[in-house]
Design brief:
homotrimer; 82% helix; mainly alpha
Chain lengths: 208, 208, 208
């Protein structure tokens, strides 16, 4: 049952990540193909990197195309001028909703990515599991930024990537005590809380 | 016999892609090493991404180095001032020939990439086969643009990537009815016709 | 015994590469997370690309996290203002030491990368072994430059990548005559000598 809940969280994240990615494409004056690729990359790019590192080929994103296709459809909807107009007139509420959806997606992608290390590698070390968790959470956005000719956003400001890393560590610890399902729910909760607190209080990391 | 024809198409494409890639390196004032890497990346980079996604390692580009070495030699020839002078004096004819060669290469890379999904994965879904087809066709050029510090050309204008996607879809449909060889020839034809029509009539995709 | 020597060379290289990577992050005004990622990418990114190409998953960098963790700790030390102040007051000596450490690392990464092709693929062709050698040596730095929004340094100037390529070729030739251990030591020596001569005499490659 809780696994289904995680699937719902994943789909919420897929939509939120695709919206964020397609908006970067629109800002960059890309055409509809570029916008759809950026939306899809943001949503499934992190999972593809994770699966290549774990040797799981073809990556889940290609075996179960529901995520990629959801991201493409989302990007095409964002492309519609009527949709963007509506959003511009409801900017404030829109931002809050998107931030929550993005946080849920970041959490779901993180715990699923960390769990993938345990599924694919016998007795993985924590470094690998935290990497696969965090890269599933933030790798798609970093890849999108590189494709858009930008330095990845997560390197420059905000606490964003750290929320994913801390959530992945929490998942790895809790998993041994509470089992996969409960650890996933709690891992998502850790990421959501940290990411929303970071946004509210504008947490930033030290810079030189 | 028709497979040999596809190999000839591939070599034509390898040369055309390497020329395009090394010209980007020259424009960017790279040295001869950078120019050769960009020429090679444009020619074989898409196939390498495809093989990593399909779990075929080492990728074909390394097992059969004929493509990569052809691309490197092509790039070194393009580097020669005498060659570039000759081209500048025959600009118009040169552009037409290169466009045709590039279209043939795009077609050959697309159908070979789509077929690779059928070779490597039992009963692949269409999304995977279209992805491996299109990424073989346009992935090398996108990787080259990223390495050159540019937003991938295919995201910003022209119908280019769509010709590859439509060709891959056509190949996947025709393959079941006509067999691999005939479907490959027809798939290449679809891509070549679409890519040349798009260039002639300056087809573009909608932008926001 | 000589293998242990190579491990020492690798660790020297890991530190030198992490310093170079984190300095790019500092120049780009990244936060501490971005700086650590750039340091780590410079040190282990080339090896990860090599292992993905060779189908060795998870890559060594994740199975034996000592390299990545050393790179992260190095980056955090470079981040400290006191450390950077000290370096600024000893600029000249620092540059010489770093150049030697970087040269040793380039050599060690190159021969280990070339040897990985022989370990993972039965009877690999020279093109593959030279590629895996050179990409282990210079791929991390190229990836770092892409993540920092720069055209990879190795494409634009200096002899750097050629030292790695020549070292990898030398290793592949010597390996059959002298055995792995001695060939590794000599391969490292070739790279170190070429890289230091190139720096001293400002060797550059031809440009258009």
């Amino acid at each position: 049952m809780d696994i289904d809940l995680i699937f719902i969280f994943e789909m919420i994240g897929t939509v939120a990540f695709a919206v964020a990615g397609s908006l970067v494409g629109i800002l960059k004056k890309m055409d509809i193909f570029g916008i759809a690729v950026l939306g899809m990359t943001t949503a499934v790019g992190g999972g593809i990197i994770r699966d290549l590192v774990l040797g799981r080929t073809p990556p889940v994103a290609f075996v179960r195309p529901v995520y990629a296709l959801t991201a493409i459809v989302t990007s095409l909807i964002v492309f519609l001028p009527a949709v963007r107009n509506f959003v511009e007139h409801h900017q404030k509420g829109y931002e809050g909703v998107m931030r929550l959806m993005d946080a849920i997606g970041l959490g779901a992608f993180t715990v699923i990515g960390a769990e993938a290390a345990f599924t694919c590698v016998p007795d993985p070390n924590v470094f690998l599991a935290v990497f696969t968790g965090a890269v599933t959470g933030v790798g798609g956005g970093a890849l999108r930024d590189v494709l858009a000719g930008e330095v990845p956003y997560i390197f420059v400001k905000h606490f964003y990537a750290c929320a994913s890393i801390i959530g992945a560590i929490a998942y790895c610890i809790l998993r041994g005590f509470l089992g996969i399902e409960l650890a996933m729910i709690l891992g998502v909760a850790v990421v959501v809380v940290l990411r929303l607190l970071a946004a509210k209080y504008r947490w930033t990391l030290p810079r030189p």
